[in-house]
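In this section we walk through a basic example: taking a raw amino acid sequence and producing a predicted 3D structure, encoded as discrete structure tokens. The instruction is simple. Fold the sequence below.
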Amino acid sequence: MPRSVNAVASRNRRRRLLKEVKGQFGRRKNVWTVAKNAYEKGQQYAYRDRRAKKRNFRGLWIARINAGVRQYGMSYSQFMGAIHKADIEINRKTLADLALNNPDAFKAIVEKVK
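The resulting token sequence is shown next.
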């Protein structure tokens, strides 16, 4: 008896993957094996970078807070130490936003912890 193959499912699976890589450069968009490799690698990068994104944003917030407190003669580490000592519960994301978009409120926080 001949081997049974589910060509419909195979074709749909390939079509779905080729739809995902549509817009990529060269053979990555239309050659099955190259497209499959490109798709799998892209999924690995996506998984990795969902975690790296959190680290990148934390670094950005720290840089913004540091730039904001330097104007008042403090460093980032001194400021964060003082803010914890003063029992001010405010996260880095909010502090960075205040430093960038609302300097008066940020200045009030700096003056309070000085």
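Looking at the output, two observations stand out. The radius of gyration is 26 Å. The first helix runs from residue 7 to 20. In the next section we compare this with other chains.
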